[in-house]
Amino acid sequence: MKEHAVVVKWRAGLHARRAVDLVKISNKFESSITIKKDDIDADAKSIINIMTLEASYKTVLNVIVEGVDEDEALKSIIEYFSNITE
Q1: How many domains does the structure of the chain reveal?
Q2: Could you tell me the pTM of the whole model?
Q3: Containing domain of residue 41, as a range?
């Protein structure tokens, strides 16, 4: 299991388009991927779950990845959250 904190750097937050992109990235991997905000856990492979986080600009999220390709999955998600182009 791997865990890493990421910050939402998009001024509009983790809105629908960004959430869809996150789900697409997550679904490329076999590992279980959970995004945590406070006491809310969201399956990163579900758009509905991601939207329930209501992650606004500068929100800190914890990414938890567990599975056979966890290293690659975590690296991809960290890279995604590092991309701040609107």
Answers
A1: 1
A2: 0.93
A3: 2-82
Catalytic residue among 15, 43, 49, 56: 15
CATH number reported for the structural domain that contains residue 42 in this entry:
3.30.1340.10
15 is catalytic: yes
pLDDT string in tens for the chain (86-residue length): 999 999 999 999 999 999 999 999 999 999 999 999 999 999 999 999 999 999 999 999 999 999 999 999 999 999 999 987 65
- Concatenate the DSSP letters of all residues of the chain into one string: -EEEEEE---TT-S-HHHHHHHHHHHTTSSSEEEEEETTEEEETT-HHHHHHT---TT-EEEEEEESTTHHHHHHHHHHHHH----
The pLDDT score that the predictor gives to residue 84 is 72
